[in-house]
Design a protein that fits this description.
Mean pLDDT: 93
Number of domains: 1
Largest sheet: none
Structural class: mainly alpha
Strand content: under 5%
Amino acid sequence: MNISSLLLVAIACGALIPIHAGMNAALSQVAGHSFWATILSFGVSFVCLAVVVILFQPTLPTWVSLAAAPFWVWFGGAIGVVYVIATMMLAPRLGAARFIAAIVAGQMIMALLIDHYGLIGFPRHAVDLSRILGAMFVIGGVVAMQFN
């Protein structure tokens, strides 16, 4: 796939995020608490992923390769839990657009830091004026969305 196709796939995935937030918020209401809803959501995720694994039959990782992984790779699941609970608690209060704007602003700031310093396995991409301006536009959008 070329870069344009990859960007379109990323945009399509991004379009699912506010839908995901709304579904999580609704599940939280039905479940009575965001913690129960998170367990239910991850349970459905596990079942879906199990079906995908059965269909595609990927090679099992070895214990040696898992043990050799940096310690921080195991915290991705915890970040997922924080994000899902945040969608349930914050999205209904902020609304979809404000919530997603704030999420994107946080993503931009962290992405710039990760790229600039080459953190967590990413190659280094120095922060330059165009990246700073792009991030400022995103954060400016978050600020602008606070006004009705």
